[in-house]
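Shipment paperwork, digital attachment
Item: protein structure file
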Amino acid sequence: MIVILSTLNGESRLCSMLEEMLSVRLPAGTKFHVVDNGSEDGTLELLAAYAEKLPLVIYNQPVRGKNHCLNLVLASISDTLDPEEMVVLTDDDILPCPEWLEELEAAGKAHPDCDVLGGRILPHWPSRGAGQLGPLQRYFGVLFSITSTQEGPIRCDAAWGPNMAVRGRVFKAGYRFDPHFGPNGQMVYPMGSETELMERLDAAGYCAWFAERACVRHIIRAAQLDTINIIQRAFRHGYGVGRRRQRHRGFTRLASLQFNAMRALMLVHLRRLVSPPHQMLLDEYEEAWARGFADGAKSEYVAARQPAQGASAYSGLFEASHDPLNH
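Attachment content:
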């Protein structure tokens, strides 16, 4: 089994993850391929220390972007990759249960016709919890990469980055992650690092399975609960969805998506006239998402016609925070 993750200045959260990984029961031959994306903290020293305790293979990818990191490893291992082998994809801020990898391996063996596996992702809240975000509970999956469903078949795009696996034959067929999506060290980027690939696999007819007992906890940092970061993430998610829905489409699709975004914005503005104060954050979230969606669709349309494009007019919002959320 192969496990791939990237990290950028993630020393503190990566330390917690690697320490928990010492308790994970590893299937025979498991290797962790960890890519440092230009960290300036003590990440490399931390990885060197844990390389004495875990089967780590350490890479350096100077080009910023999570998907650049994943593709670097895939390029390195693709020639020797077993078509049936499960390639586990995760992040540097998860706390795995001891049976995590064993359960993914068992699900892969039990469902040889499935090329994608999704696992359960639960939140690991900071000490203050998330009580103040009650109105946003319906969006917790997007905000904090939380997913949990019953054992059984799913769409490929229901498998999410912190806890998923893809069979080797998918990558040997030439599939790779699109570096235009996902964290790239910038405040504004289209979310959907793995989702973009999963949607392509859905379109190609690949099957997926949800392995309920393969569980990790996602570390939620206190900064992620701040209003500015919540709104930033809403915009980035909408931006990514807008780009993906516009992709390979023309002006007619763009006009339709822009109309949908405008209608959503009008509904939010009308609702604000009667919304109680505790609903204000929900209104701000949905407005940011709709603006991101519109910008993403327009950005994709423009990008299809000219290589270079400017930042979103709405991106001034992102200048208020010095802690970009890269997950």
